[in-house]
Predict the structure.
Amino acid sequence: MEQRNQTPVSEFILLGLSEEGEVQPLLLWLFLSMYLVTFTGNLLIVLAIVMDSRLHTPMYFFLANLSFSDICFTSTTVPKMLLNIQAQSKVITYAGCITQMYFLMLLVGLDNFLLTVMAYDRFVAICHPLHYTVIMNPKFCCILLLVCWVLSVLDSLLQDLMVLQLSFCTQIEIPHFFCELNQVIQLACSDTFFNNLAIYLASGLLGVLPLIGILFSYSRIVTSILKISSSGGKCKAFSTCGSHLSVVSLFYGTSFGVYLSSAASQNSRATAIASVMYTVVTPMLNPFIYGLRNRDIKLALRKLFS
């Protein structure tokens, strides 16, 4: 590729969701409100699970980690966006951009793997109830959590190290409100073939395979539930995995929606607006889904406030 106008990059410009000045105060208060709701809601879920001994089970162990991951996920992007709006600055340093990308990829991967592990937990609970406590013992749960972290860290570290090898031109404007991997790679002057290859491989291995695992788990769960003779037993079995299924649908639905919108449209700003769904809205809704649909969480929250 052409190498002209290459200079050592010290910063990038985040164009955000809108460049209209009168919209900025609205965006500030809107995203501040959503961030506070997300932070508070997920923190309450974590505290309720930690404080209530009845919730010290594998399902809620992974749910607490999912809520903690969502807190970190939104804290990686939204505070920087709010700071830029408040300071009327769109600058993010090169080191800050690389760091933000690392934690974003790590936490998205962690959410992905945690949802997969939670689907496996429901599969064991419903399809092999007599062996549930033996299979999902505390040691095995910790191993599963460790595997989720290790895979997420390795993937994000690999992607970040490959970005560090790129050279950037004088065009340093990112049409997004955070440093998104694809957008940053598009700014590079050097060859990005291996970066794009790594993204496709990671998406296939670490994105599609977990989704296949979730779909397989729920296909077996539905088959087992349909074999239950009583309608009350069926309702009870469905209710135990309804909240998780809602979160899975929201997570993958918004992720694929952003992917399809970016593939169908060349408007990067439209893609940035669509990405708000999985970066902000999904983590904000997760506590409501579990809080409203899960009786144990409701009781634990009441106990926490009382």
Remarks:
- The longest helix spans residues 94-127.
- Strands lie at 11-14, 91-93, 173-174.
- The radius of gyration is 21 Å.
